[in-house]
Write the structure tokens for this entry.
Amino acid sequence: MNERSDFIVRNLSAGEVELPVEWAALEGWNPGLHDASCFWAADPDGFFIGEWRGEPVACLSAVAYDEGFGFIGLYIVKPEFRGRGFGMRLWQHGMDYLRNRNVGLDGVLAQQENYRKSGFQLAYRNIRFQGVEQGAVHSDISNASELPFEQLVEYDRQCFPAARARFLAAWIGQPDAVALTAIRDDRVAGYGVLRRCRTGCKIGPLFADNDQIASNLFDGLGARMPGEVIVLDVPETNPAAVALAKRHGMTSVFETARMYTQEPPAIPVERVFGVTSFELG
């Protein structure tokens, strides 16, 4: 048998997306309890598995948000099958699927050079902060469910490179999660989502017009699950976001390289206090 011809790449079905999420847990990425169904909603055609002689050995997500932007994540090769070219073949399949889009990723810092070979350029670092939060209640913070969904989608689009209504509907509506909004002068001025993970919780996204609104949202989210270990991933290019994390007693535990194949999307990074996820951007 030919090892190369015995390797195939195929799309994952909705029920199979749990597999790469489980592999992510084994890698120590601590995914959310309901990440699989939410991720799937972003692009049902963007999840791939590499099989060697019928056995799943590699996975990748290549989410096409629209015709102009995509994001690569969940790139995992089972340890015993690494170094045999399976990962690169799967990677190329995902990149071919995304075609001419501007593609983003969050990669470990040590792999930057490999990503550069695939046409990616460093935009900035994302810093993972972690800490225990008790939270506080603020009168200007309310449940996202009280807001017309279209207004939330519109605000999110201002802070993310593409519209993602289907993903957002799943993300804010998932079990074991809280979605809060801030309203100023009858308009959305920020929102955030906290979801329970295998260990503790993660906040993301956390988008806000300024650091005070972001801090109130952070407090409100923490108050819903007090005493839990909370993770917040912030772009280093937003000093106010870094300061918010440190002000809440969080410590830096990990960093990624946010990279793109084209110019970084023109979004107001000063309003991004927490990225949605390292897997989907």
Observations:
- Helices lie at 18-26, 35-42, 86-98, 112-117, 149-159, 165-173, 211-224, 239-247.
- The chain has a mean pLDDT of 95.
- Residues 127-274 form a domain with the Aminopeptidase fold (CATH 3.40.630.90).
